Amino acid sequence: MKRVLFVSYSQTGQLAEVVRSVAAPLVASPSVEVVFETLEPIEPYPFPWPFLRFFNTFPETVYGMPRPLNPLRVGAGEPFDLIVLAYQVWFLSPSQPMAAFLQTPEAVRLLRGRPVITLIACRNMWLMAQETVKRGLQALGAHLIDNVVLTDRAHSAATFISTPLWMLTGRRGPFLGGVVPAAGIDAADIADARRFGAAIEAGLPALDAASPQALLKGLGAVRVNERLIASERTGYRSFRLWGRLLLFLGQPSSLLRRIVLCFYIVFLVTMILTVAPVSAVIKRFVAPWMRERIARQRAYFAAPSGETDEARGFPAHG
Fold it and tell me: What is the pTM of this model?
């Protein structure tokens, strides 16, 4: 019998729904034992978030300084044929609970030499977070064989409003009388994620831990939005720069840190509303001269599963 471990943390409950959908075919299989490990921070994160506390979390998040976790329920010495790491994206980085897990001695024992699939549910930006997770898995000696990403279908301008409102109020919407659609991943996309679990179940018998191969190629497991690549890199650099300054100013409770943070929030929103649209126009104008470079970038970020959906073209959640 094959054993599969799902490690996850879901603050809003959305990622938990995604995990259940992907895991369903595995749970139903008589030849697979599925174990679920839900990460539990010693000090729980609030939901909905208080406004300033939400933004005050980003310095520790981008610098990989998460709050510690309660001990895992699963034994660190238990053998698994496959491990699925399901995480959210916080400030273009993996959520603090997943970052904390990857820093534990238990993660070393569980992941070293094991095939790993990452499963992401987020607004629309996930590239930089996945780069951080990839580096963490490489340091642990794990083998990343696939990546699955589900994102909000709505336009970026709409999710720029709906997602923060969801985080700060606990309500998904729609907002403004339906002008701004409900935040989060469409229910149909979550249900459709079962197909990844079915492919995993079908490929498990032949999965070789010594030389594991991708199980989800040709299923459109990810879609890279080329228009967001440069924006993600710029945003990540901004978070790192300002995050270093805020960490220098003290703990999250520091009054000076909070004052500077308020200034940064105003700066960030101003940049998004003014510079980002101009940058988008410029990128669209120069795109014809950068096709080869963009194609290479898409292929890199889409690996190892790839964007191609041999059955249907790009996935509905792209």
Answer: 0.91
